[in-house]
Design a protein that fits this description.
By secondary structure, the chain is α/β, with parallel strands linked by helices. The chain is 36% helix and 25% strand. The strands form 3 sheets. It has a 6-stranded mixed sheet, sandwiched between helices. A 4-stranded antiparallel sheet has the order 2-1-4-5, with helices on one face. The chain binds adenosine-5'-diphosphate (ADP) and magnesium ion. The site of adenosine-5'-diphosphate has 11 residues, from strand 2 and helix 1. It comes from Sulfitobacter marinus.
């Protein structure tokens, strides 16, 4: 039996904004069915890493490999871009992102929000997309909100709609960027429950979070980023129970 390549593999990734080096050689993998949490102080490069991963940001050096398929680049290390727009689209549609601020389209109903990308990007059949959109909205507990607009929902409901929207793309992995940070604590729990259910189902997920309890509960693997480098990574028990790095100990004891 041949071993399945990881869904996401990042090798020695470097990313700078002008003179500011944000990622200084990051390597990590997300095997199929695993949940990886990314933790670290504000400004450590977590969002940038996620955005480089689905090619929303360019990077200067290193490899991004999806299911064994490396991204091909053109240009040189100082000015490289993905070479193949079809590959970019394929990767992006296979890695659905959920943002801190939900990013729902205000002028569309919840159902339209969930159906939009499968219809326009994947050009799937409308009746089929509507059926699966309704099923995903049911799954996240807001099946009764199909016909309302985002502004009529609580933050927790909006974020669950955003998760349904991501799922409706049938992606290979979900990328979450601080999915609960904009929510009041009681609304946070509804979103955490959905994320936990997805983890139990064996979804491949990369989750940037400030919520150490969430990271400890759902992750197979936790990555601690410090100033653009992985300072420590490992199983949650080890990382939270017996952190080796002084910086990680400091980060955890600072109440994160
Ligand atoms: P985190 O998500 O861990 O808080 P970010 O990845 O957002 O960190 O940011 C890492 C660093 O990159 C920060 O110093 C931030 O100011 C900088 N940065 C992020 N986005 C941009 C951008 N578009 N242009 C310039 N600098 C940026
Ligand atoms: Mg961030």
């Amino acid at each position: 039996m041949t071993q399945q390549p990881p869904v996401i593999e990042i090798r020695n990734l470097h990313k700078a904004y002008g003179a500011l080096e944000v990622l200084k050689g990051v390597s990590m993998v997300a095997p199929k069915g695993h949940v990886i949490s990314l933790i670290g102080s504000s400004g450590s490069g977590k969002s940038t890493l996620l955005r480089c991963c689905n090619l929303l940001e360019d990077s200067q050096q290193g490899d991004l490999i999806f299911n064994g398929e490396p991204v091909t680049w053109k240009g040189d290390d100082h000015n490289r871009r993905p070479a193949d727009p079809k590959q970019v689209l394929r990767i992006r549609t296979n890695l659905s992102m959920v943002f801190q601020q939900f990013n729902l389209w205000a002028h569309m109903t919840i159902l339209q929000n969930v159906m939009e990308a499968p219809l326009t990007v994947l050009r799937r059949d409308r009746a089929e997309v509507e059926k699966s959109a309704r099923a995903y909205l049911d799954k996240v507990g807001i099946g009764d909100k199909c016909d309302v607009y985002p502004a009529q929902l609580s933050g927790g409901q909006q974020q669950r709609a955003a998760i349904a929207r991501a799922l409706c793309m049938e992606p290979e992995a979900l990328l979450f960027d601080e999915p609960t940070s904009a929510l009041d604590p009681e609304l946070e729990q509804e979103v955490i429950k959905v994320i936990k259910d997805l983890a139990t189902e064996g979804r491949t997920m990369l989750i940037v979070t400030h919520d150490m309890k969430l990271a400890a509960d759902v992750s197979d693997h936790v990555v601690f980023l410090h100033q653009g480098l992985i300072e420590e990574q490992g199983a949650p028990d080890q990382l939270f129970g017996a952190p080796k790095s002084e910086r990680l100990r400091g980060f955890l004891s600072a109440g994160h």
